[in-house]
Amino acid sequence: MNKELLVKDDLENIYNKKAKDNSIKKEIGINEEIVRRISKEKGEPDWALDIRLKALDLFYKLEYPTWGPDLSYLDISKIATYVKPNSKMNDSWEEVPDEIKDVFDALGIPESERESMSGVGAQFDSEMIYHNISEELKDKGVIYVNFDDAMKNYPDLVKKYFSKAVPLSDHKFIALHYALFSGGSFVYVPKGVKLDKPLQSYFRLNSKGSGQFEHTLIVLEEGSSIEFIEGCSAPGYNELNLHAGCVELFINDNASLKFSTIENWSRNMMNLNTKKAIVSKNAKIEWITGSFGSKVSMLYPMSILNGENAKCEFTGISFAGKGQNLDTGVKIVHNAKNTSSLVNSKSISKDGGICTFRSNILIKENALKSKVLMNCESLMMDNKSKSDTIPVCNILNDDVMFSHEAKIGKISDEAIFYLMSRGISEKDAKSLIVRGFAEPIAKSFPVEYAVEMNRLIDLELEGSIG
């Protein structure tokens, strides 16, 4: 396997805008002393430090996964595991330092807040530097704060849910996360409250050779409903970066959460993220995911359908180019009667890129009359690229409906020829076909992120088609 670190061609794009390294504190590697310093820096309660230390012990004991992309060249001792920017937490955008603000302004933050969001959070390296929520939502009892403030101001609520969906022992990199977690958002929505506009958190990793370990925790009480949007990006460097964040979602009876993510990490990024939702009776989780960039991705959002009539919908797209190995998918546990899941996944690979979709579906003995519909499609743009679909299904009762369809194919020479015969260049013809393939996924995203997804597709295609 070629270990060369690749920086995206066409560096003149907004996602590659770099701010100068204005960090005031860096921790390199991981050990007990570093973990204790991070906890002390944040003024955390003892129970949080206890979790960090238990996770550190597990990190040393757990093995690297061997069934996916090669991770053997990831050396944590050389990663800056905590990078504190020279900025305090702000609730006014004008107070954010100019060099940081310029990057987020280019990305459309907080312009999106003014136009279409109920609240916005922005993280720069290891810390949230901006967080705000509309007064209307505050009056309704909605909590949307950065994770450090949540532990200080709502300790009982955070302690009740933190690490309860994703346990410390889940895998080696979630243990690493819990030892080093920093930044992220906490959302609490009271009973019956429905948000008309989304909340958004944006995570920017600016420092080269560093890691980001944000924690997002969302709790929806009975009958509530929200949409949460997560954006991620980083400029390109010739040093390895690491992202090992965590998302925990608790969706109580009759509640509904739409969780949308666009990840556009640089080609020197190892993206080892973990996401899990606990879904109760008559509740629904909807995942919408776009995976772009990164050298390696391993990401499999998990939904545990614990209540009758609980629902999960997953819509995802990944795009792998030269030097990329994007290993993504979904895990779903049907743990009650009449639960249902719908999975629609698409991938595009070019220039030798590797896309793998894995699914792990468990329908338990008590999950009678459950329904699962899965559709996976892959488009390879040349003979060098690779695409695999690896479904695992474990059905433990015989009163279910299960359907799985997978399609893998090359871009059609006939379609290219037809479009060129109508006066369209070969490059534009291929671009039209790719956009048409991706369009059903784009429609699932909020408007602002659908536009961003199309922009990312353009960046992936630029200079490599024709």
Brief rundown of the structure:
The chain is of the alpha/beta class and 466 residues long. It is built from eleven helices and 25 strands.
Describe the model.
24% of the residues lie in helices and 37% in strands. The relative contact order is 0.10. It is an alpha/beta fold and 466 residues long. It has 2 domains: 14-299, no CATH class; 412-466, no CATH class. The longest helix is centred in the C-terminal third of the chain and has 17 residues, at 426-442. Helix 1 (32-42) packs antiparallel against helix 2. The strands form 3 sheets. Strands 5, 6, 8, 9, 11, 12, 14, 15, 17, 18, 20, 22 and 24 form a 13-stranded mixed beta sheet that branches. Strands 4-3-7-10-13-16-19-21-23-25 form a 10-stranded mixed beta sheet. Strands 1-2 form a two-stranded antiparallel sheet. The chain is globular, with a radius of gyration of 21 Å. The protein has 11 helices and 25 strands. Residues 1-12 have low confidence and may be disordered. The chain has helices at residues 32-42, 46-61, 98-107, 111-116, 135-139, 147-153, 155-161, 172-180, 413-421, 426-442, 447-461; strands at residues 25-28, 80-84, 119-124, 127-133, 143-146, 185-189, 199-204, 211-212, 215-220, 225-233, 241-243, 246-251, 256-265, 269-271, 274-279, 284-293, 296-299, 302-305, 311-320, 325-334, 340-349, 354-363, 370-380, 386-395, 400-410. A hairpin with a 2-residue loop joins strand 3 and strand 4 (127-133).
